[in-house]
Amino acid sequence: MGNPAENKAKGRGVEGNVLVADDVVAMIASLAAGEVEGVEPLGGPITNGVMSKTSSRKLTRGTRVKVSEGRAKVQLALTMGYGVNIPKSCALVQEKVKTAIETMTGLQCGEVGIRIVGVNMKKGR
């Protein structure tokens, strides 16, 4: 039914099981986090042009996901723009990531932990 070494989210479809790999959940989390102004996932800003030319491994760098019993636990490493209200932005990231994962995968998102690893000093962010 799939590679046992691969972590999976399980759902029941009409024709059989639906399995969502952890890497897919990590990509969803990274994309959702990058939608918040002044927040940049470790993989860098994600645009359609970047997605088509870059491996998913680079785009999800700094994003860890563990799926167990229909629940996802997410850990994100983020860079914030200088002058950004970190607590407010982190709360928004947590909300967006949780909503995106639950809407797109049907999993429950139990925890979204955030670690700030840097500040982007560029103007205009």
Describe the fold and architecture.
The model is unreliable at 1-7 and 47-54 (pLDDT under 50). The relative contact order is 0.21. 34% of the residues lie in helices and 34% in strands. A hairpin with a 2-residue loop joins strand 4 (63-68) and strand 5 (71-81). Helix 1 crosses helix 4 (86-105). It has helices at residues 22-34, 48-53, 56-59, 86-105; strands at residues 8-12, 17-21, 39-41, 63-68, 71-81, 108-120. The radius of gyration is 15 Å and the shape is elongated. It contains 4 helices and 6 strands; from the N terminus they run ββαβααββαβ. With 125 residues, the protein is α+β, with helices and mostly antiparallel strands. The strands form 2 sheets. Strands 3, 4, 5 and 6 form a 4-stranded mixed beta sheet that branches.
Number of strands: 6
Query: Which class of secondary structure composition applies to the elements?
Result: alpha+beta
Helix content range: 25-40%
**SSE order, one letter for each helix or strand:** EEHEHHEEHE
Distance between the termini: 45 Å
**Beta-strand content estimate:** 25-35%
Main sheet overview: 4 strands, mixed
Number of helical regions:
4
Indicate the low-confidence ranges by residue numbers. 1-7, 47-54
Mean pLDDT: 81
Topology:
Blueprint lengths: L7 E5 L4 E5 H13 L4 E3 L6 H6 L2 H4 L3 E6 L2 E11 L4 H20 L2 E13 L5
Parallel strand pairs: 5-6
Antiparallel strand pairs: 1-2, 3-5, 4-5
Helix pairs in contact: 1-4
